[in-house]
Amino acid sequence: MSTLVLLLVTGLGLGALYFLVASGLSLIYGLMGVLNFAHGSFLTVGAFIGWEVSRRLSDGSWWALVAAMLVGALVGALAAAATEFFLIRRLYNRHIEQVLVTVGLALATVALFEGIWGTDPTYVTSPAWLAQTTEILGARIPNNRFLLIALAVLVLVTIVGFLRFTRYGLIIRAGVENRTMVTALGIDVRRAFTVVFAIGGAAAGLGGVLASIYYGYVSAHIGSSLLIFAFIVTVIGGLGSLGGAAIASVLVAVLQQFANFYLGGTGDLAVVLALAAVLLVRPRGLLGAKGSTA
After folding, report:
1. Residue 292: its pLDDT value, please?
2. Which DSSP letter does residue 284 get?
3. Higher confidence at residue 94 or residue 251?
């Protein structure tokens, strides 16, 4: 029983991390139709800058972690907004060019990060409580999983609430449906699309800081490795569906945990097989629907 609880809760924690990365991908594709292969770079730069802030304040304290998360999210948002403004804005409805540019940017930024911070992992220090465990039904659960789960839920609620219940969210959704009409009303749709990228980048930057807590280190490749699973989650959940991404994140992470424990470390293989099965049976994903954002 304790093993089952441990695998389930740690799977939820890993799924929360996957969702923080996948939410930005799903949001950007769902609203703008852009597959952004540079999304992992937003995560990595957020993780590195967050680590720089944390170690300069008071490494290992709660207020340093909070500052790192806020700064990481801000840096991710700025990086994403700059990418949209300088690169993607000129390539809407040109999907091949989007892929080429974002893949090139992803490769270039990995080299840039290695040049600045080196090729070896940089180990991080987190608050003592996060390194401890809490017993649930006999299972010792690492406390950092609870932080991941709580923040993933907060991000999901915040994004959905922003899109559904704010004026700017209404403008974004209207701009997606009929850009010409919204522009005719005197509203700058381009600015709204930049905001969408910034929100996705902020989630990735926050995810980068939390990934460094989860793994205990940050490296130039942490974003690209997580991006693979984020794409799998996004496809399984349904391209453009935040709700689908949330469900798929949990399913993928729990499956991965169980396969690693019971099937000799075959978690990654099990996830790929699950992706293949979904594509064969339900190609649009669990909750996929054109234009879906929740």
Report:
1. 46
2. T
3. 251
